[in-house]
Amino acid sequence: MENPAFNRAIRSFVLRQGHLTASQQRAIDEGMPRWGIEYQPQPLDLTQAFGREAPKILEIGFGMGTATAEIAAANPQNDYLGIEVHSPGVGNLFKLIAEQNLGNLRLIRHDAVEVMDHMLPDACLDGVHIFFPDPWHKKRHNKRRLIQAPFIEKLVKKIKPGGYLHAATDWEDYAIQIMEVFSNNVELQNSADGYAPRPDYRPLTKFEARGIRLGHGVWDIVFTRK
């Protein structure tokens, strides 16, 4: 039975808009009509949204979008739907889409939980990426972390059988939590023996490369839907 208090409280973000530059605002104004999808509380036809039949991959919380653009450019056979609430990142990714002419990317600027609940039909996704979600590293804030059992239970329903769920984090205790949440979901099975090696499709960010040089860990957790 779902916890009503959790359902009322869950959010995929905490609003921190940051400074929106003039170029980012212009990119949003120009990009939304071309590659943006407005939030509407009704089912979204992903085939129609992208204008073709192709594998559909969801990314939740793409930040500034640099890695997302790199993934989309390197995998033109797939379509990528990015969800991000923070306007500077949305603007930056629209800018990258325009510069690189990426026809296989669509963006929704809204809370991912509401998009998942109201726009994404069950079994519509071939994969989901959640890369470096906010770790909320102070123990008293751990409850704000996105990857918790009730959220994953909802998300897994949106993935086709055989599709994958890939999370990555550079916080070890969050990696342990993610592994536990994924492992306890009866609809998921681990694609690796424990943590997975970084898949080729996930680019190494400058921040991540610097952390690795300093001896910091990065953990990839990749499960498939049964």
UniProtKB/TrEMBL annotation:
<feature type="binding site">
    <location>
        <position position="84"/>
    </location>
    <ligand>
        <name>S-adenosyl-L-methionine</name>
    </ligand>
</feature>
<dbReference type="GO" id="GO:0008176">
    <property type="term" value="F:tRNA (guanine(46)-N7)-methyltransferase activity"/>
</dbReference>
<keyword id="KW-0949">S-adenosyl-L-methionine</keyword>
<keyword id="KW-0808">Transferase</keyword>
<keyword id="KW-0489">Methyltransferase</keyword>
<dbReference type="Pfam" id="PF02390">
    <property type="entry name" value="Methyltransf_4"/>
</dbReference>
<comment type="pathway">
    <text>tRNA modification; N(7)-methylguanine-tRNA biosynthesis.</text>
</comment>
<protein>
    <recommendedName>
        <fullName>tRNA (guanine-N(7)-)-methyltransferase</fullName>
        <ecNumber>2.1.1.33</ecNumber>
    </recommendedName>
</protein>
<feature type="binding site">
    <location>
        <position position="138"/>
    </location>
    <ligand>
        <name>substrate</name>
    </ligand>
</feature>
<comment type="function">
    <text>Catalyzes the formation of N(7)-methylguanine at position 46 (m7G46) in tRNA.</text>
</comment>
<dbReference type="InterPro" id="IPR029063">
    <property type="entry name" value="SAM-dependent_MTases_sf"/>
</dbReference>
<feature type="binding site">
    <location>
        <position position="59"/>
    </location>
    <ligand>
        <name>S-adenosyl-L-methionine</name>
    </ligand>
</feature>
<dbReference type="InterPro" id="IPR003358">
    <property type="entry name" value="tRNA_(Gua-N-7)_MeTrfase_Trmb"/>
</dbReference>
<feature type="binding site">
    <location>
        <position position="170"/>
    </location>
    <ligand>
        <name>substrate</name>
    </ligand>
</feature>
<dbReference type="InterPro" id="IPR055361">
    <property type="entry name" value="tRNA_methyltr_TrmB_bact"/>
</dbReference>
<keyword id="KW-0819">tRNA processing</keyword>
<feature type="region of interest" description="Interaction with RNA">
    <location>
        <begin position="140"/>
        <end position="145"/>
    </location>
</feature>
<feature type="binding site">
    <location>
        <begin position="205"/>
        <end position="208"/>
    </location>
    <ligand>
        <name>substrate</name>
    </ligand>
</feature>
<feature type="binding site">
    <location>
        <position position="134"/>
    </location>
    <ligand>
        <name>S-adenosyl-L-methionine</name>
    </ligand>
</feature>
<feature type="binding site">
    <location>
        <position position="111"/>
    </location>
    <ligand>
        <name>S-adenosyl-L-methionine</name>
    </ligand>
</feature>
<comment type="similarity">
    <text>Belongs to the class I-like SAM-binding methyltransferase superfamily. TrmB family.</text>
</comment>
